[in-house]
Design a protein that fits this description.
Layout: H1 3-11, H2 17-24, H3 28-43, H4 48-56, H5 60-70, H6 73-85, H7 87-97, H8 105-117
Helix pairs in contact: 1-6, 2-3, 3-4, 3-6, 3-7, 4-8
């Protein structure tokens, strides 16, 4: 059972990575990437789904489906909190924000915001 399955089980009943992959029509590894990107996007300024799309490479439509299957924005907030409290999962989420690996995701968020808003 993956870290994501454990945390999904705490946040939403009857949802796991394989189940989400089947429902959305993508590979389970893509679901894990999507979940980490959504959790990171939830913590970043701006629209959660658009931020996650920019960092994960998945389309906004797929990410929106995942948010719906998890239980919406409220469940996503709970999921992001649970991920941030799990050391291994927190590293995965931070990895989506800190693209240049310098340990400071804030400069990467500024670049992401410019990309989203055409700056």
């Amino acid at each position: 059972m993956s870290i994501f399955d454990q945390i999904l089980g705490q946040v939403s009943s009857n949802v796991d990575v394989q189940n989400l992959a089947t429902k959305v029509g993508i590979d389970p590894s893509q679901v894990e990437s999507a979940i980490a990107a959504l959790a990171a996007g939830h913590q970043a300024p701006g629209d959660t789904v658009e931020t996650a799309a920019a960092t994960s490479g998945l389309g906004s439509d797929v990410l929106q489906q995942i948010v719906g299957h998890i239980g919406g924005e409220g469940s996503l907030a709970s999921f992001a909190t649970a991920l941030s409290q799990h050391p291994d999962a927190a590293k995965l989420v931070t990895g989506f924000l800190d693209k240049d690996g310098d340990g400071n995701p804030l400069n990467d968020l500024g670049g992401l915001a410019k990309g989203l808003f055409g700056g």
